[in-house]
Amino acid sequence: MDVADLVTPKCVVPRLRAASKKQALQDLARHAGRISGIDERAIFDALLERERLGSTGVGLGIAIPHAKLPGLAGLHGLFARADTPIDFDAIDEQPVDLIFLLLAPEAAGADHLKALARVSRLLRNHDTCEKLRGAAGAEAIYALLTESEASQAA
């Protein structure tokens, strides 16, 4: 599974303007609703439910919020870069500025886990994250997200 299977250029939000974790999740749910065709409130509620289990802020300024939803036809990803780092209750207690949202159908057990692992591997790369932070806009961010996996495959 490649990141290009999860996101398209329209799934990149280069300037997320959110002051809190809740606001970030609301904004991401709104964008994801447009992309997936699923009600944004259902997405937001599912994301909040997942966050109650433990923060998806994985450290080093990165969060990977994710949820399973009924009615979703396939895996959907959305990448956002926050204008200002957000307190996301991350495990290292550092604010988050890179967020990769992942939505999966309810029955997508193994595929959901594979996608989470793929996104996690991508965002563990310090150089990739620094390039994502410095990229000019959505197209450049999308190119970095999909380019880094091509170079890893080579």
Number of domains: 1
Cα radius of gyration in angstroms: 14 Å
Share of helical residues: 40-55%
Main sheet makeup: 6 strands, mixed
If you average the pLDDT, what whole number results? 92
The number of helical segments is: 5
Q: Any low-confidence stretches, pLDDT <50, length ≥5?
A: none
Question: How is this structure best summarized?
Answer:
With 154 residues, the chain is α/β, with parallel strands linked by helices. The chain contains five helices and six strands.
Could you describe the 3D structure shown?
This protein has helices spanning 21-36, 40-53, 109-124, 126-134, 138-153, and strands spanning 12-16, 57-59, 62-63, 66-69, 76-86, 96-105. Strand 2 (57-59) and strand 3 (62-63) form a beta hairpin. It has one domain: Mannitol-specific EII, Chain A. The longest helix is centred in the first third of the chain and has 16 residues, at 21-36. Strands 1, 2, 3, 4, 5 and 6 form a 6-stranded mixed beta sheet that branches. With 154 residues, it is α/β, with parallel strands linked by helices.
